[in-house]
Amino acid sequence: MKRKKQTTSEGHIEIVNGDLESHPQCPHGPTILFSRNVKGTKRNFFACAASRDRKHCNFFLWAENRSSFKKDVWQQEINKELEGINHEKLFSVQEMMKVPPAMRLFCHKCTELVDEREDDQHKNHDSIRKLTDYQLKHPTEILPALENTKKEAQYLFSKSSVQTMMDMFERLGYRHIICIGTPRIHEHLQNHCSNFTSILLDMDKRFHSFFGPHQYCWYNMFNHHFFFEEARDVFRNFLHTNNGKNIMLVTDPPFGGRTELIANTLNTINEEYEELNDVRTDLPMFWIYPYFMEPQIRNSMPEFRMLDFKVEYENHAMFHNGLKGRKQGSPVRIFTNVDLRSIKLPDDDYKYCDECDKWVAIENKHCAACNDCTSKSGVTYVHCTRCSRCVKPTWQHCGKCGRCTQKDHLCEQLVFHKECYNCKEPGHKKADCPKNSEVGAKKMLNQPNLKPKKKKKKH
User: Fold this and answer.
1) Closest CA to 396 of 417, 387, 416
2) What's the whole-number mean pLDDT along residues 47-75?
3) Per-residue exposure over 446-455, b if at least 16 CB sit within 10 Å of its own CB, e if not
4) Which of 251, 426, 438, 457 is the most buried (most CB within 10 A)?
5) How many angstroms separate the Cα of 350 from the Cα of each of 35, 293, 346, 353, 367?
């Protein structure tokens, strides 16, 4: 994967990607350069990479006013964010195990584990008391989920989904797992999988108390920012584990996050992986996101394909198969650069398609015309001969629009307004770029991306 400087649009706001390290910094790391139309004129501005709501981070700077940037003032804000965070001191699970359970508590206000015998200042704070050994080892089951959808929305995988993914990773031969925003998987690996190693990169600083400095890094995935430099070194060491063999990455970003920023981070990590291990194959990655975000993901990462596995969450009303869940099951899927033909899914809800040579959901029916199992949303799609593609059964063909769509729609031509990452022209995605070579367009699905080895820089 090659990281490119690119300008992409989403609505009326565009992201202008460049050298993040040269950007002004807020408490959440390097800011992002955005561009938007103001009275018919494009104006660039810097804003927080982590939060889309200025109530949570009010950093805002017009690019033309950069010379007036008050670096000292914002450095004070950064220092406040880091104040009191000492990973070595906060990591106290092992010591807490020696404390009688009746005296153990986690203070939500102070975000730390406390021995009540030695510290009574948390008496009136919101906290959880009498922690068992199991709870200390499974913090995601006691910490209230962060549900700020404009910053660090936190939905937790169901135990069945975690187990299915773990079976999948083990069958594929991975043993060293980078968990970005997936604390449930990391927690499972740390407690139940002695033949695996893992590291958690997450925005939730409460994990400092539960995972050691070599198992957890405080991290912002939208700008690849480590809040402490020593954590960056820990991550790079992990990326070099076993010279890069049997290592993979799994990420579950907030669904409101910009796919372009996530893609840039994954590309950056992949470049580090190749450089550190002197390899020319991509780091295996699993990106967990809703199925309807496939066009955006494929536009940023055309080598990724969607796996038909429905990922369930236990603390989201719609993202599970229960009585109160979505009728068609969870809309969340896994996008990966790993060959789909090598991934087996559970027999109960999935089946093997001989024509596609891959596992698909039970309701997914192979279409001879499309030569693919085309269902994506959890219902069986039907083929439209006029569109030459399969669509949802509730859709119908509209002659005026020249496409299938919802019955009660407004007739207008759907146009892809963003720029293609390949030719930089608007109106189509990189995967559909007419300037792609026929060989590239017909490339075998997810074959190893072999590239000439980069020449090492002379120092």
Assistant:
1) 387
2) 89
3) beeeeeeeee
4) 251
5) 44, 22, 6, 10, 17
Distance CA 262, CA 268 (A): 10
- Report the mean per-residue pLDDT for the chain: 86
Name the β-bridge partners of 61. Answer: 46
pLDDT tens per residue across span 203-258: 999 999 999 999 999 999 999 999 999 999 999 999 999 999 999 999 999 988 89
DSSP codes, 323-361: TTS-TT---EEEEESS-GGG----TTTEEEETTTTEEEE
6-19 tens-digit pLDDT: 444 444 788 998 89
Q: How far is CA 129 from CA 109, 136, 142, 212, 282, in A?
A: 13, 11, 10, 22, 45
The closest alpha carbon to 137, from 79, 215, 234, belongs to 215
Alpha carbon distance 271, 455 (integer Å): 13
Q: How many CB atoms lie within 10 A of CB 69?
A: 13
Full set of structural domains in the chain with CATH:
7-82 (no CATH), 91-137 (no CATH), 159-368 (3.40.50)
Residue 106 parent element (H or E): strand 104-107
C-beta separation of 283 from 304 below 8 A: no
CA distance 107 to 127: 4
Long-range contact list for 454-457, CB < 8 A, 24+ apart?
A: 454/274, 454/275
- Give the pLDDT band (50/70/90) at residue 4: very low
404, 391 Cβ separation under 8 angstroms: yes
Short-list 392, 359, 393, CA closest to 373 = 359
Cα distances from 432 to residues 10, 205, 260, 386, in angstroms, run: 19, 41, 18, 20
Q: Using alpha carbons only, give the angle 148, 13, 319 rounded to the nearest 5 degrees.
A: 35
Q: What is the per-residue pLDDT for 295?
A: 94
- Rounded Cα distance between 330 and 319, Å, is 4
Alpha-helical segments (H) within 83-182: 87-90, 93-96, 133-137, 159-171
Q: By three-state DSSP, how is residue 407 classified?
A: coil
Residue 126 burial by CB count (10 A; 0-12/13-18/19+): exposed, middle or buried? exposed
Residue type, 427: G
Q: Which pLDDT score, from 0 to 100, does residue 276 have?
A: 98
Question: Which pair of tokens denotes residue 315?
Answer: 């603390």
Determine the angle formed by the axes of helices 259-277 and 229-239, rounding to 10 degrees: 60
Does residue 5 have a pLDDT over 50? Answer: no
Q: Give residue 350's identity as a one-letter amino acid code.
A: Y
